[in-house]
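Input record (Table S2, row 233):
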Amino acid sequence: MQRKIRILIVEDEEAIRTGLRDVLVFHGYELDCAADGNEGLDKALSGSFDLILLDIMLPGMDGFEICNRIRSRDREQPIIMLTARSSDEDIIQGLSLGADDYVAKPFSVAQLVLRVQAVLRRSRIAVEMEHQLQLGDGIEIDSRNLSGRRGEQALSFTRREVEILQYLKANSERPVSREELLNRVWGYAKNLQLETRTVDIHIAKLRRKIEPDPAQPRYLLTVRGAGYRLLTE
Ligand code: CA
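Output record (calcium ion complex):
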């Protein structure tokens, strides 16, 4: 039998911690909990969790510091921050420290479970992908350290940009729509209405990095009415 997916909850408020645990156990996950920052960091660094749900305001050590320390050891560990709804700054800081996503408190159970499933799906896709991504024009990208090169020229990418390239490469036999990219790479359900323009902005940034002439793409193509397609040769 396949082992259960293991999730760590780091949250000092007992009601939230218990509520989260019960919901996720109900959905078939195996849970462990920590009620303060130091215990949370110790458990998180054991490396035995498929996902960590991390509160920000914690006794001992806050969630930002924990996230930072996990990331300095392990770039791949999936992390979802639990933020206060009103605080855009918390969200931005959490994501810039490398959290994969966030859920704003108070959250709906349905939304939380969707985010958990999306982050786990993305991390599985990432594990299944090869770390080396080769494109035409001698471009090589290493998804582990988000760096690459074209001949002598060093390139650097964001995690999201590499995920887009990986997803397009895995589906290179067909164009991929903006909506599909939002769903599968960002992991957002359609009803969250993240604008498809977000995808276009990322594609434009990627073209500036990988295309010899970004105005005349040779690898990252627009397929009219269908989306984007990556040519790997
Ligand atoms: Ca708290």
